[in-house]
Amino acid sequence: MNMIPDLIGYLAATLTTVSFLPQAILTLKTRDTDALSLGMYSLFTSGVLLWLIYGIYLANPAIIAANAVTLLLASLILSFKIYNTLRK
Q1: Please, are residues 29 and 81 in contact by the beta-carbon 8 Å criterion?
Q2: What is the model's pTM?
Q3: Which of 2, 69, 84, 87 is most deeply buried (CB count within 10 A of its CB)?
Q4: Where are the alpha helices (DSSP H) in 31-60?
Q5: Are 31 and 80 in contact (CB under 8 A)?
Q6: Residue range 21-69, pLDDT digits in tens
Q7: What is the pLDDT of residue 71?
């Protein structure tokens, strides 16, 4: 069985999720969301949710794992952004 597509999928999932971590950590640490676009994060979080549903539908562990982690982080940041926007 050719495992190269699976390895590519896991590598892609790892890289895209890890690339999101610095922004997530900074936002969670500082709670500063002024420079973040509410529209962009809303669309991004919705897209990640759809990727997660797609991964579940396909039963693809790489897509499921990457998007579950990213959805959690993106949802936290989006929540902070909405809270900070409503507070102003």
Answers
A1: no
A2: 0.87
A3: 69
A4: 38-58
A5: yes
A6: 898 899 989 999 999 999 999 999 999 999 999 999 999 998 999 999 9
A7: 96
Q: What is the pLDDT of residue 3?
A: 85
- What is the rounded CA–CA span in Å between residue 13 and residue 30? 26
Q: Show the CA angle centred on residue 32, arms to residues 84 and 82, nearest 5°.
A: 25
How buried is 24 (Cβ within 10 angstroms: 0-12 exposed, 13-18 middle, 19+ buried)? middle
Q: Compute the distance between CA of residue 61 and CA of residue 33 in angstroms, rounded to an integer.
A: 31
Q: What is d(CA 58, CA 87) in angstroms, rounded to the nearest whole number?
A: 40
Q: In the structure encoding, which two tokens stand for residue 22, read together?
A: 């610095």
Q: Of the candidates 11, 13, 6, which has an alpha carbon nearest to the alpha carbon of residue 52?
A: 13
- Would the CA dihedral through 11, 14, 18, 20 be positive or negative? positive
